[in-house]
Amino acid sequence: MTANLDADSRTFAGEAHVRKPVLFVLDAEFNSLGGAERQAIVLAEALRAQGVTVEFVYACTDRTLPAHEDFRGFSLHRVFYREIKLLGALHLMWVFAWFVLKRRHRYAYFHVHVTKLMAATLGLMRPWLGIPVVAKVSGHYEFTGGILDRRRRFHPLLGPLRLLTKRVDYMHAISQYTQDILRENGFRPSQILAIPNAVDLTRFSAPTKTTTETVRVGFCGRIEAVKGLDVLLDALFDLPAVDGKPVTLDIAGVGDVVADLEAQVAQLSLQERVRFLGEVTDVPAFLNTLDIYVQPSYAEGLPNSVLEAMSASLPVVASDISGNQDLVEEGVTGFLFPAGDRDALRDKLGRMLSDADGRWSMGRKGREKMEQHYSTDIVARQFAKLYYANQT
Questions:
Q1: pTM
Q2: Which of 98, 165, 107, 109 is nearest to 133 (CA)?
Q3: pLDDT tens digit sequence for 251-263
Q4: Looking at the structure, do residues 309 and 357 belong to the same domain, yes or no?
Q5: CA pair distance 252, 270, nearest whole angstrom
Q6: By residue range, what is the domain housing residue 189?
């Protein structure tokens, strides 16, 4: 049976002085602030509100940065390693093992965000640490080319890393698909901890779009091939106007395929209907300008962008893949379409665009779903209960 922790009414405020901190381990460049990093920060802030002290450590190659500093009121540590072909991974595992061994008496729990080398290191060190470990599967990386990619189960590096990772106490699964993949890779059902990503609902309100001259569709996230934005552009090309209003698309974010998408926009003569906004710092404000949110990805973990769109009371059209399936209920909070299917996406968008009352209802129900299952308070309580389950 998959492990799960029900939230209870208990708070931990006022008890932080008698509880050891939790160490959040980020096997990624912390300053990139991708989905996993953003989720770690959101959770840390929610835990702090409940009296849980969180510190961060991440792998870093830039030795001009300090080894320790303050980040938004959290202690941030860096473990430095060298990017050496074939040997860089071993160097990182060595320096991180030494870091946690020296500090093993300081922490109550290790919580890894993104299951890669540092999770495997904690699995290796687990018998000597005496501290429990939970490792989060963020999604796309682990499934495609990472330790949970079944096509690479006999890889000379990934195979041993997978075996070491199986030694941690819990694997944090954010979607049903993640749970299934973990079981397929031989993780024990009792080892799988089913807790979703969290969203800070206080940041989001219902859309306040002021212009009525267009019907606006939007996307926010990394602009990479896996996000399927080329399919969205093709679908937009075939979408007719709605009550005489053109359907426009705003794309917020940066990434590797922006130039390719801009060329596609020019080829389809969509320059008057598509805007590339670059990096958007105020996501709630961006979402408030939209009528519909679209997530056409080929692969996801549990997408922050869809969590945020539903928190902003937007109806969602999303590809029928892992993560999206956990969030979007067909005909209730939005529509799903087969990933990569331009015609199906166009049809689902057209159906939603033709029903303004239906869009409003879907957006409202999406917000209710976020309030019931995905709020930072609910998720943070479950983790606080996990971290201190064996402490009096």
A1: 0.85
A2: 109
A3: 999 999 999 999 9
A4: yes
A5: 17
A6: 16-197+375-387
